[in-house]
Description:
- This protein is of the alpha/beta class.
- The chain folds into four domains: 4-130, Rossmann fold, CATH 3.40.50; 143-253 and 402-475, FAD/NAD(P)-binding domain (3-Layer(bba) Sandwich), CATH 3.50.50; 256-399, 3-Layer(bba) Sandwich (FAD/NAD(P)-binding domain); 492-551, 2-Layer Sandwich (Alpha-Beta Plaits), CATH 3.30.70.20.
- The chain has 15 helices and 28 strands.
- The protein has a five-stranded parallel beta sheet with strand order 8-7-6-12-23.
- Helix 6 runs parallel beside helix 7 (193-206).
- It is elongated.
Amino acid sequence: MAKIGVILCNCFGEIGNTVNLESIRERIASDPSVDFVSIRESLCQPGDSAAVHALVRERGIGKVLLGACSPYGRMEIVRQGLAKEGVDARTVRAVDLREGCAWIHGKDPVAATRKAANQLDMELALLQNMQDSRDVAIGVQREALVIGAGPAGLSAACGLARMGIRVHLVDRGTAPGGLLNVVTKVYPTELSGPEKLKPLVEMTGSSPLIRFYGKTKVASIKGYAGDFKVTLTGPEGSAALRVGAVVLATGARLLFPQGLYGYGKTKNVITQMEMERQLATGKAACKTAVFIQCVGARCAERPYCSTICCPMSLKNAMRILDEVPGSKAVILHRDIMTPGSVLEAFYRKALHRGVQFIRFDADRPPEIRGDGQVSGVEVFDVLSGVTRSIETDLLVLSTPLVADPESAALARMLEIPVDKHGFIAEVYPVHPVETRNDGVFICGTARWPASSDQAIAQGEAAAVKAASFLGTGTVSALTLSRVPGIKLGHAQADAEACTGCGNCVAVCPYEACKLQRVGQRSVSRVIKVRCKACGSCASVCPNGAMQIPEQNYRVTGAMIRRAFREVR
């Protein structure tokens, strides 16, 4: 067993004034596995890490137990300092003696000391029984695959290229730009969609680090973070790539509201995107245009706001007023969604320009009139309590963005979940462009409806995240953690004891457990690059075949026995 060194921090009296560190030193020093117990005034001040490292090296210590502050205090600084001095972070454990003992039990020094001693005892039991996970290192391919060449994908590709990373940009369309190519004006500016994307499109065409694959789809993606093997299919046949990171920017699709408000049956009932085409060709002339919001959105089937619908209606309503003198524009809405100061100012601009707003209730939606062609709309105004009849020769339906089936197919390839609406699901709100699968990043409307500005910003964020990963050269599986620092270890299956029940495969949230055939039976194996040491697999293994070496069942048993030995 490796010798254990214990270092207790007094924290200039913040711990020692309450916790009796001398009595704890005497108690711990009697443990045969402990080589020494040292009390220091501090562990986080300049020079402390070097002094601890010198002591560890001089005594030939294999494992270190620190009694100091909370991880939410300065313990991570202490760990990082020791790591810089060459102390393997996996051999260092820490117990919270300050916030968890001295501070919270400041009025009861005896209880604080007893609690501190018990926690240190339990951590010693862990160090005495823990084993090491066998780490794996992967050489990172310094190239990236960006799927989708809309605003988000273009932003991600250009961002990566600016950081010196080669990018393969794939899109099913013939040219980059996505839906924004058909938008004549982008709110709240006067720029057209192509004008807004022009700098990104020009860089895509001129940068030697970006290769654009038009009319191309991803046939397969295999591998792990740092080394994905990708097969593309396009006009020139198949192409094989090896990339270190994947950015999903596949975008979303527009809902065509068949059966709603006469769409598809009644003339002059169109969607917002169809109106964009009319505006582009000058065919949007009308006396009165009525816009209906939330058509197919914020309902039982799609209970979400699509972000872009209200600003699009404001923009197109004002364009009708601009391009057709004497015309009238009315927006029927349940709520006007314009978050942020810029869009709020845009809304107020529409009010001042003469756009009319009528609020209706979802339980009493507007009704259209007309035989074969729309002639009017009747709507109950919930603010005035009056049913209003509006003559119109154009009805524009604001429909939501819906998930693209291609996104779901790619998510299945990468073993990333999608939500109930079909959008790619991410489960870490503090990491909004990351996915469960390390090395795979997401941006734009593939993850949720977003404006073009939001999509471009997310693309830049995904590029930065991907570049920081691709710049590592070699990645250790133990560094692929969801918490600060290295992760606890990797789960490990005992092939002799494994019965192949598949419980671990069913519960693993990271798709890290797989069943494979060994002779005449199936046994579990763990993909270390994906494993996050969450312990889900070990908790459902019926015979203890699945363990995390650093926190195996011997560790757990020893910690429990040590915790209650005084009771016996």
